[in-house]
Structures are given as structure tokens and as C-alpha cells.
Amino acid sequence: MNLYPADMNSIQKAADIIRAGGIVSFPTETVYGLGADARSPEAVARIFEAKNRPFFDPLIVHIAEQDQLFTLTRDLPHQALKLTGRFWPGPLTIVVPRSSAVPDIVTAGLDTVGVRMPDHTVALELIRVAGLPIAAPSANPFGYISPTRASHVQRQLGSRVDMILDGGPCTVGVESTIIGIRSDGSIALLRAGGIPVEEIEESAGMRVALPDEVSGPEAPGQLKVHYSPSTPVKIIDSSREIDIDDSSAGFIFFTRPLQDIPGDRYEVLSEEGNLREAASRFFSAMHRLDSLGLRVIYAERVPEHGLGRAIMDRMRKAAARYDREANDEDR
Description:
Elements: E1 3-5, H1 8-19, E2 24-26, E3 33-37, H2 41-51, E4 60-62, H3 66-72, H4 78-87, E5 92-97, H5 104-107, E6 112-116, H6 121-130, E7 134-135, H7 150-156, E8 163-166, E9 177-181, E10 187-191, H8 197-204, E11 233-236, E12 249-253, E13 266-268, H9 275-290, E14 296-300, H10 308-330
Parallel strand pairs: 1-8, 2-8, 4-6, 5-9, 11-14, 12-13, 12-14
Antiparallel strand pairs: 2-3, 3-7, 4-7, 5-6, 9-10
Helix pairs in contact: 1-6
């Protein structure tokens, strides 16, 4: 069994594993990460192997001290320091020019690197004890549901990970917001996440560009099909689209069931309509319903503002696999 409570003895053991070139799953405020020494191409390659992740998809480097940012980057735009001062530690990743200390495998050969400082005592202590930056995508097989509990990691990756630190459930529950900061100081949203874009715009004093499409991955989570359970997901707007008597269907609702659903085949994200609570429960809801062996999971849309933007981004990417498979059947 490679699952350990996240006490100081376990954190020290995990740090030793990372320094020796191993991979460790650890909690952050967003989701559980799968970490390796960001300076070692060989160690980082183990992450790609464990996740079956394509090498063209770049990783985020996690740090515990602001000084580490300067070793990983060069020519930092002034907006980068302004925003990290406001939102770090926290669920914000900045994509900025990288230094020669960052291996190509981390950035998928790009001239930029994504960096963030997690707002979680276990993650920060692990980075400090290891004494090095940690490259860490989410600790799940590539393209599947992100883990918000250690048990999710154990079930999805198991023995492919040298050690799993159990720090309890993640409080934010969706991945970090990723922004690209250009040399001219302009900002582009690359992935919606744990910090609403409205807060970034307010702090930066400028509009954040919301590109409809990106020519190639600048950051994790930009592929059209991602964050998917094994069970197909279909997005719904109203009760007319569901059959409550279909025992092979599961349901994710925003505030309350659209109809009287029998049994335990549904999840409510937030009875109070709180988008922060809904975001923290979304992946866990998909994990539980996915474990029931259902034919389909119907997911109700949530309001698309604040953290609702991140929830809908994950929901659409989970549903993209359903849409693609349906189209394949029609051909």
C-alpha cells in the first residue's frame, strides 16, 4: 500500500523519493498532483509514463518561495509580479518566458513555462523539504476525471505512483486558472479555473483576452476532450431532456434535482447555488457516479460567470467524448 497520511514523517519520505527521481502524489487546494523533480528530464518522464500523457502537453511547475520563480523564468513582465503578489499562494498559474533551468520535457519544447504556488500546507511543505521545484499535473490517467481525494488517485493510478500523500479532500476542487502574460504586459486566459477571470481583470486593471481557440497547447487542459469519466457525459438544460425511470442514467444537478430521481443516481453540487461549493464538488460527483457502471451521466448547466466558467469548461470537455463517440456512430 503506497497511501500515507500527510504527516511530517510521510512528507520527509515523499521528499526523499522526489529527490531520488521518483514520483509522488500530493494534495493541493485545487486537485491532487503527481509530482517529480522539475529539473530532471528523467524524473519528469516518469509522470508522462504513469499518466499515459502525450509529450506535447506541457506541465505546471510548483514552487514554495517567490525566489524560485526567478530561477525558472526570465524577462518577467511587471504584470506577473503584480498578479503573483495578489493571488499567490493560490490557484493561479502564470505562463511566462522560461529560463534554461527548465527542461524541454516540462514545457513541451515551448519557450514558456507555467508556474504556480499552491495554497496548501502539505504541498508547500513538500516543496520546501525537497528543496526543489516540483513539476506536477493532476494525478489521474490522461484525459480522465481529476482527483480531489487520495482515494481517487489510488483507484486510478495505484502502483504506478511511488507514494500518495493523503491530505484530505481538496477545498477548491477544480484546477488552477492559467493565464499567459505576454511581453507587452497583456494577459490571455488559457484555462478557466479556481480564480474567476473577473478577479484577475480587477487586479490587473485591464481586460483579459478570452480566445475562442488556441492554435496549440500553451498550457495544460486546453485539449477539446479532457477531464472525462469512463461513463459518457451529456449536458442538459431542462427536465425535458431526461428520463428519470432510466435506471442506467446518472445525474448531476446544480441546486436541486430537476425531477424526483429515485435511488442514489444523482448528485447536487450546491443547494444554495454557491458556485465555489459547486466547483469543489464537481469532480467528486463525477467520480462517484462513474463508479456505478451507468450508461450515461446527464449534467445540468451552471451559470457561466465567476467559478461557473471553470465548471462549464470541465463539463464541456467531459461531454466532448460523448459527442465525438455519438458522431462516430452516426458515420
